Structure to design on (374 residues):
């Protein structure tokens, strides 16, 4: 996400510096500056040298320096850190509430008084910062509705549609028909993604034996071992293939050859990045109803209530058994991907930055400078 934005802004003629706490042994060549693990003095110098500071996620480290130096600060929220103490709405114990008071009660029960007090203090700081920044960015209407922050705007994350694009609906349908009884999941193997629900639903569909079907799971993560055990417990391990984590051309090949794609997130996903990529590839989709997945997919998917295995299995049966439904969703997916392709997230950020900078300079909203450093 950071690379896509920084690259687009650099190509638009702006000077961009990416500041990160993540170390790296071998840098890939990029046309913008990258500063890793800067000292406090370096942070101060960087803020001085730039016109606006943009936080792409949870970190508030640069805010206090920017605020002290009266530099504009824009904060993009990737999860639910302003309505949940844990910042995510999901813990090792499963879902956690996405409202502050309920979140405190939940963590008092599960995390204890001392840990909850620490989390509440951090939450208070985050809440204060959210009121002081020049703009809060939500990545979907669903997330914006959950957090309801001042000076909030919705800007969807940028997507590389061209990498996943398929030629037309006929070509997409031919690829899907070749794998019409293969269900495919693409994503991380972590508890909140609901892959355990997918395996349970697949077990029900497979046991009916109305038609042979298989499940392909593309991705890696800490849940891989448990999910393989779950497939054995449902007696479908011979029908489930764990492909592992794929990148680049290997990932594109897996997506291209996929049939019906299922994104069964148990969590309320803030946005549906993988959903957009799969729509660009012309795939018929089944996604969980609550969260950003269904918002991004719109009418180009079947939905089921999060964690409802019976409803998920019913949706899987329906698509596997209906070429007409698959074709309908393929056409809608490609049309919706085209609408999102016209949505230029990096440009919307630049317009917002220009408004903020010109407003700070007394020029009023809309009188944009020719160039800014970010």
């Amino acid at each position: 996400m950071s690379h896509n934005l920084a690259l687009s802004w650099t190509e638009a003629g702006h000077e961009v510096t990416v500041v990160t706490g993540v170390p790296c042994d071998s840098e890939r060549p990029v046309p913008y500056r990258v500063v890793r693990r800067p000292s406090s003095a370096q942070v101060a110098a960087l803020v001085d040298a730039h016109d606006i500071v943009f936080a792409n996620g949870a970190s508030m480290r640069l805010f206090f320096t920017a605020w002290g130096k009266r530099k504009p600060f824009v904060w993009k929220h990737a999860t639910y850190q302003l309505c949940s103490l844990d910042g995510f709405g999901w813990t090792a114990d499963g879902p956690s509430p996405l409202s502050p008071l309920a979140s405190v009660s939940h963590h008092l029960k599960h995390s204890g008084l001392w840990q909850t007090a620490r989390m509440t203090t951090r939450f208070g700081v985050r809440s204060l910062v959210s009121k002081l920044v020049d703009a809060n960015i939500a990545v979907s209407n669903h997330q914006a509705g959950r957090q309801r922050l001042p000076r909030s705007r919705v800007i969807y994350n940028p997507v590389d549609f061209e990498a996943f694009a398929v030629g037309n609906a006929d070509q997409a349908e031919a690829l899907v028909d070749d794998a019409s009884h293969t269900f495919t999941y693409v994503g991380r193997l972590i508890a909140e993604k609901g892959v355990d629900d997918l395996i349970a639903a697949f077990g029900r569909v497979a046991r009916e034996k109305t038609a042979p079907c298989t499940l392909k799971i593309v991705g890696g993560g800490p849940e891989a071992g448990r999910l393989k055990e779950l497939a054995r417990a449902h007696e479908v391990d011979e029908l489930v293939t764990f492909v592992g984590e794929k990148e680049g051309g290997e990932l594109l090949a897996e997506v291209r050859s996929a049939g019906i794609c299922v994104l069964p997130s148990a969590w309320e996903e803030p946005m549906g990045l993988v959903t957009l990529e799969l729509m660009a590839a012309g795939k018929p989709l089944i996604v969980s109803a609550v969260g950003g997945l269904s918002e991004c997919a719109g009418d180009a998917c079947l939905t089921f209530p999060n964690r409802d295995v019976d409803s998920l299995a019913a949706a899987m049966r329906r698509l596997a058994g209906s070429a007409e439904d698959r074709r309908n969703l393929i056409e809608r997916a490609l049309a919706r991907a085209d609408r999102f392709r016209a949505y230029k997230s990096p440009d919307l950020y630049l317009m917002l930055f220009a408004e903020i900078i010109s407003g700070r300079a007394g020029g009023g909203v809309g009188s944009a400078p020719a160039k800014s450093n970010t």
